[in-house]
Design goal:
Layout (H helix, E strand, L loop, with lengths): L5 H5 L3 H7 L4 H15 L6 E5 L5 H8 L3 E6 L2 H9 L9 E4 L11 E6 L10 H14 E12 L1 H6 L4 E6 L2 E9 L3 E9 L7 E8 L3 H10 L3 E6 L14 E7 L4
Parallel strand pairs: 1-2, 1-4, 2-3, 4-5
Antiparallel strand pairs: 5-11, 6-7, 7-8, 8-9, 10-11
């Protein structure tokens, strides 16, 4: 696909994982637990964790009794996930894979995309390719759950400048937006670096209407929409998340 994009470099960086390692694990597991209960997922169901990162959620789902596969395009993340597999336990399988490209057809009962792991690509076509891959990967009657930021909430709660110091690493974070997306420039200084590093994250401003269109175009029908990790009803201004549950027709 030519020159590497920002996410290919940044997601492979140890500084990325250091910055985000303190994300609320308890909140994440609570959300996944609620989701599993809400969907009433049968034990042994085949689940794809698309953009699985280092695999923490894949491992959690596998430990709950599901047949889990995790894919991510960052080789370092998949290497970490594979090295974290515990011998003698029910484990997920992990693959380096770009979710824009086909991966198993009519195979999964559920496909999850957690914590805004979408919206990174340069073109709408690439995002459509991702939804197409997901639609084809689901069995008839299967479910896709995507957890995205609520654009309207994020616009009104944007923190423009922030400094984080984690151990000896300093992160200077600058955030801004335009009509199409959110941007986050991260400047990193660390004793191990000869010179500072800089990465810029971009996330597209996809609304509920955008997702409904993208999903329906690939034959996926939105069934429910939530606005928080506690599965509260979606509200355009007052809830931080946009969590959609869509189903592939059972035919």
């Amino acid at each position: 696909m030519g020159e590497k994009q920002w996410y290919q470099n940044w997601f492979n960086s140890p500084f990325y994982h250091k910055l985000y390692i303190k994300r609320d694990e308890e909140e994440a597991e609570g959300f996944i637990n609620q989701l599993v209960q809400h969907l009433n997922i049968p034990k042994g169901s085949r689940i794809l964790d698309a953009a699985c990162g280092r695999g923490r959620h894949s491992r959690f789902l596998a430990a709950a009794g599901f047949n889990v596969t995790g894919i991510d395009l960052a080789p370092e993340s998949i290497a970490f996930a594979l090295n974290s597999i515990a011998t003698g336990k029910t484990n997920p399988e992990f693959f380096i894979h770009d979710m824009r490209l086909p991966f198993r057809s009519n195979y999964f009962d559920y496909i999850f995309n957690f914590f805004t792991s979408f919206g990174y690509f340069r073109t709408r076509r690439e995002h459509d390719d991702t939804i197409r891959t997901i639609a084809k990967g689901l069995k008839p009657g299967g479910y896709f759950v995507i957890d995205y930021l609520n654009v309207h909430y994020a616009e009104s709660h944007l923190v423009h400048n922030e400094i984080k110091i984690l151990d000896n690493t300093r992160y200077e974070i600058h955030r801004w937006e335009d009509e199409t997306g959110f941007f986050k420039k991260i400047n990193i200084t660390d004793p191990s670096l000869k010179s500072p590093l800089e990465f810029t994250e971009t996330v597209a401003k996809f609304s509920l209407g955008d997702f409904t269109d993208m999903l329906s175009y690939q034959g996926l029908q939105v069934q429910e929409v939530f606005g928080s990790y506690q599965l509260e009803p979606y509200h355009i201004n007052n809830k931080p998340r946009l969590i959609l549950i869509a189903q592939k027709p059972d035919r």
